[in-house]
Fold these 2 entries.
Entry 1:
Amino acid sequence: MEFAAPAAEKHEIVIIGGGICGLATALALHRGRDILIDENKERKIEHVIGESRCLQRSDLITTLADELPIGTIRLGSEVVSIDLDSVTETPRLLLTCGSYIDAEIVIGCEGGRSKVAELLGLKASRAFDVGVIRGLTTYPNAHSMPHEFRRIRKGKIGVGMLPITQHLIHWFVNLPTHLLSGDKFPNDPKHIKQMALELIKDFPSNIHETIELSNLDSMSAAHLRYRAPWDLLLGTMRKGTVTVAGDAMHIMGPFIGQGGASGLEDAVVLGRCLGMAMSGIEGNNKKEKIAKIEAGLDQYVKERRMRVLGFSTITYLIGIIVGSKSPLIKMVAGFTLAILLRDRVSHVHFDCGKL
Ligand SMILES: Cc1cc2nc3c(=O)[nH]c(=O)nc-3n(C[C@H](O)[C@H](O)[C@H](O)COP(=O)(O)OP(=O)(O)OC[C@H]3O[C@@H](n4cnc5c(N)ncnc54)[C@H](O)[C@@H]3O)c2cc1C
């Protein structure tokens, strides 16, 4: 007895993940026929990105999402699995609601625990021995902090503070995770705040005051994750017409503030490579179409691999310096880093080209 394959919706391009990279990729492709799927029912306010210029992640997300045609984003749908048809290699997605989607092209922008990366055979992202507590503090009557990024380190604890506006300050506290009891952060925002205050008790009183005043609903704490540089160098980033972008490809520590920025670069390069490949498609020859798409995706991977490898290596070494208990390992990592970072800002001067 033969079973018919379950019916599936069909789409030309499906982007999984509605974070910075997924939204920017949808905009870069801007075709109106594609869909973007995200598991969240609403968009979250989380990170702050940018180093000397601080930008609230939610502002960036809202700005990108507002530019997309209505109906492009499908919130509240989690992709449970993704498979390639054994004969045609067409990607098929299964959603939590039980429905299927057949796509000609799938771009996994679902962050550090990407299912698409798994399908490509990439090794799982790893946790640094470093954790970070982050928060925002609102000053209804304006704060007096200069508009610059302040970083202070005392022993094993680092604190960073950066005003976003005259009324809002972003701060973080980082620590080696061996200082955590049971290697875990508390879940409750009140306890997270208490922990941050305890960790910075020897820091200047103005830092203490900012964290004391912080908004509980902005509080988060997590182990930092990364994709190992050697996995980035050697890993398969395309299988058939499926690829990854953003943290799904290159999750890295936030130490040089380039994770979200490189997700934006991915979107521009992917949009250009795929756009050029698809504009060269004539007629209805499916095999030829797939070959052109694959060549476009290969060009994207080629352009991005070495660029993100540079960032990942730098952030990997900083993660080792902050998290390791061994002075010798810290010294070797520090020495290698000093060589790589001879020019401290060269990594931000990059032209990813036009769309
Ligand atoms: C502490 C910290 C500080 C940082 N500071 C900076 C900085 O200063 N500058 C900078 O450039 N970057 C910074 N970053 C990094 C930056 O935040 C990330 O690189 C960026 O947010 C990644 O965007 P993304 O779209 O690739 O992934 P994500 O933001 O992780 O988005 C993935 C989306 O996919 C959804 N999703 C996941 N799985 C599924 C599924 N199965 N089905 C459907 N949807 C799914 C998720 O819910 C999420 O909405 C920092 C990160 C951290 C942790």
Note: Residues 175 and 261 are 24 Å apart (CA to CA).
Entry 2:
Amino acid sequence: MGAGYEGEPAPDPSLRRDLARRAAAARADPTRVLLEGVHALKHALRFGADIELVLTPDLTRLTELLAQLAPDVVVPAGTQELERQEWRDLVPRELPSPALAVARRPTGSAAEVLATAGLVVVLDRPRHLGNLGAVVRVAAAAGATGVLTVGDADPWHPTAVRAAAGLQFAVSVAATDRLPADTGTRTIVALDPNGTDLLGALPSDGLLLVGTERGGLTPDLLDRADQRVRLPMRPGVSSLNLATAVAAALYGAAANGDGRR
Ligand SMILES: C[S@@+](CC[C@H](N)C(=O)[O-])C[C@H]1O[C@@H](n2cnc3c(N)ncnc32)[C@H](O)[C@@H]1O
């Protein structure tokens, strides 16, 4: 879809049905990304996503919202308005804002994420897609260049995309079965509540390893770390939430002068 807005609701019910069917199918399609809500759509547009279709129950409202929230972004040409009942059938759980879009999924691999020139967050078997999305969001905000998940959690799952407000398009993301044996010259820093070192500056091209919600980092990943860094906590508190720990580490390290935003 190109920039610009034609402003005409789809007059043809069969066209609307077809677009709604494609949006519903995108939820489980590994080649597509479902963007739920205006923030996800805004970030996807801003960071160069290839948007295939945009649906809304209220084109005027969507246009107003984008103008308010993202004056740099225009409603894509070809955006189609659905009738109320068509929208309800497509979106049974109310979205925070009136937009549902489908983009092509970039073909990212672990090697591509590890080839980015910057700090990469490595999540060891994250269980909660909301946490995964929150990590992508803070990684993008804090200037990390990639997020790699080890295990079966999909960083492009609609729940993770929603939690990240579509910022998967602003960093390099991929899932992998295991962290490749060769990670080049990157310094590996494990974020570990039982670590010995206190957080200082993070290496600008480091790998930041983060453990799973219950069990923390697996021993084989911990063994690969050059440093095991802890964030100090009041006695009696056993750990921070995974995404909170990543946020504290990235912004704490930036405050310690590692040159990222
Ligand atoms: C909910 S915690 C897991 C707690 C787990 N029992 C453990 O010992 O790691 C999820 C991940 O967040 C990071 N984390 C949480 N609190 C931390 C802290 N105080 N210092 C360093 N990392 C922390 C670690 O990477 C941890 O594996």
Note: The pocket of S-adenosylmethionine is lined by residues 191-193, 210-211, 213, 216-217, 230-231, 233, 239-240, 242, 245 (CB under 6 Å).
